From TrEMBL:
Residue ranges occupied by any Rv3660c-like CheY-like N-terminal domain in the UniProt entry: 11-112
BP GO terms, sorted: negative regulation of cell division
Organism whose genome encodes this protein: Corynebacterium matruchotii ATCC 33806
GO molecular function annotation: ATP binding; ATP hydrolysis activity
GO cellular component, one term: cytoplasmic side of plasma membrane
Origin superkingdom: Bacteria
Protein name per UniProt: CpaE-like protein
Length: 354
C-alpha cells in the first residue's frame, strides 16, 4: 500500500510562518502545522519534509526524523549553521529571500528519492487486533518474515504483558538483549549496534522482545519504543506487534507509516475495530484491515469493511498447524510459513517492496 506524504511545518516566527505555509502548500503534500513539542515528536518521524525555525529545531532534530529537515531563518539572516549541523538539517534557508531555492529543493526531493535501495523504502508497520486472541502476533511474525526475505527487517514486541515474542518464534534460548536490558541513559545507540545485539531467528530476523525473568516487568516504555523506531527505521523495515490496549498505542501508531488492523469477522470484534479505526483515522494514521475468520465467524469481509470503515485488503482463516507448534516448538519448526499466512501477510506488504 502507499501512504500520503506529509510536510510538517513547525515554525513559531510570525514572519516565517506564512512563508513556510505557502511553500508547503506549493508542494502538494498534506500539511501538518504545529509548534507543540508533543505534536512534533508524534509527526516528525513519518513526515517526508520538516520545516523548523530556531525555536522548534531541537524538538524535530532530536528524534532522528526520516524526512528531509530544513532550518528556516527570517530576513536578513544570518543562518545559524552551527544549529543546522547539530540538528542534521539538509539545508538552512532565509525566507522570503530564498523561497524559490527552497521550492526547487523540495520539488527535487519529493520527485526523486535519494536512493532506490531497500533502506530508502523502509517502513514502520504496526499490527494490532480489535480483540485479544485474534492472532495478531502470528500475523506480525508472518509479515516480518515475509519482509525479511526482501529487505532488512526487525520485529518489535510492544506488548507490555507479552510472555515474549521469542516464545512464539521458538528462539527463546537465543542470546541477545531484551527490552529490560535496553537503556538510552548514556545517549543514542547506533542502529547497527542495536540490531547486532538482538536475538535472531534461524532465518536471521532480529527480534526485540521481553524477558520473562525481569522481576515481572517488561521493560517496555513509550520513550524507549519511540527511540528504537527512530533509530532503526533508517536502515530496516520495522514491524511492531502492538496491542490496542497498550498505554502508548496512540503515540506509537502516530510514528508508524501505517497500521494493520486484524478484525475477527464477528459483530463485537467489528464494533471494537470501528472504534479503533475511527481514532486512527482522526489522527490521519493510514489503516488497512485484515479479516480473521474463526469457527464461529458470522460476517463477510464486505460486512466488516462496512462496519469498520477501512479498506479490507486480505482475509485469514484458521491455519490448523499453527496453534500446536506455537504452544510447543515455535513457528520456526514449520519451515516455510503456511500458504494462508503468507497470503495474508503479502496483502499488507508496502507497495515499494511487494
Amino acid at each position: 500500500m502507499t501512504t500520503t506524504p506529509t510536510i510538517l511545518v513547525s515554525v513559531t516566527d510570525p514572519v516565517l510562518h506564512p512563508e513556510a505555509i505557502n511553500i508547503a502548500a506549493a508542494t502538494g503534500m498534506d500539511i501538518i502545522d504545529t509548534s507543540d513539542p508533543r505534536d512534533i515528536v508524534r509527526h516528525a518521524p513519518k513526515a517526508a519534509v520538516i520545516l523548523v525555525d530556531a525555536t522548534t529545531a531541537t524538538h524535530a532534530g532530536g528524534i532522528h526524523p526520516r524526512g528531509h529537515l530544513f532550518l528556516l531563518h527570517p530576513e536578513p539572516g544570518p543562518v545559524d549553521w552551527t544549529l543546522a549541523v547539530r540538528i542534521g538539517a539538509a539545508d538552512a534557508v532565509i525566507l522570503p529571500a530564498q523561497s524559490n531555492k527552497l521550492l526547487a529543493t523540495l520539488a527535487a526531493t519529493t520527485a526523486a528519492p535519494d536512493s532506490p535501495s531497500p533502506a530508502a523504502a523502509a517502513s514502520v508497520i504496526a499490527v494490532t487486533g480489535s480483540v485479544g486472541g485474534a492472532g495478531t502476533s502470528t500475523l506480525a511474525v508472518a509479515l516480518a518474515l515475509q519482509l525479511h526475505e526482501i529487505v532488512p527487517t526487525v520485529l518489535v514486541d510492544a506488548d507490555p504483558v507479552s510472555p515474549g515474542m521469542d516464545l512464539l518464534l521458538g528462539c527463546e534460548t537465543t542470546g541477545g538483549i531484551r527490552w529490560a536490558d535496553l537503556s538510552f541513559r548514556s545517549g543514542s545507540i547506533a542502529a547497527a549496534d542495536l540490531i547486532a545485539a538482538l536475538p535472531e531467528t534461524e532465518s536471521g530476523l532480529p527480534v526485540l522482545t521481553t524477558d520473562r525473568g525481569s522481576n515481572g516487568t517488561s521493560g517496555i516504555t513509550e520513550d524507549k519504543l519511540l527511540r528504537v523506531i527512530g533509530t532503526m527505521h533508517h536502515t530496516h523495515c520495522v514491524v511492531v506487534d502492538l496491542p490496542a490496549t497498550a498505554p502508548f498505542f496512540a503515540a506509537l501508531t502516530d510514528a508508524c507509516d501505517f497500521v494493520v488492523l486484524l478484525i475477527p469477522a464477528e459483530v463485537r470484534a467489528a464494533a471494537a475495530a470501528s472504534r479503533i479505526a475511527h481514532s486512527l483515522t482522526a489522527r490521519r494514521v493510514d489503516t488497512v484491515g485484515v479479516v480473521r475468520h474463526r469457527g464461529w465467524s458470522g460476517l463477510t469481509a464486505h460486512d466488516v469493511a462496512d462496519i469498520v470503515g477501512v479498506d479490507v485488503v486480505g482475509e485469514l482463516g484458521t491455519v490448523s498447524q499453527v496453534p500446536r507448534v506455537a504452544e510447543t516448538t515455535g513457528i520456526r519448526t514449520l519451515g516455510a510459513l503456511p500458504r494462508a499466512l503468507r497470503k495474508a501477510a503479502r496483502c499488507v506488504l508496502p507497495q515499494e517492496v511487494a
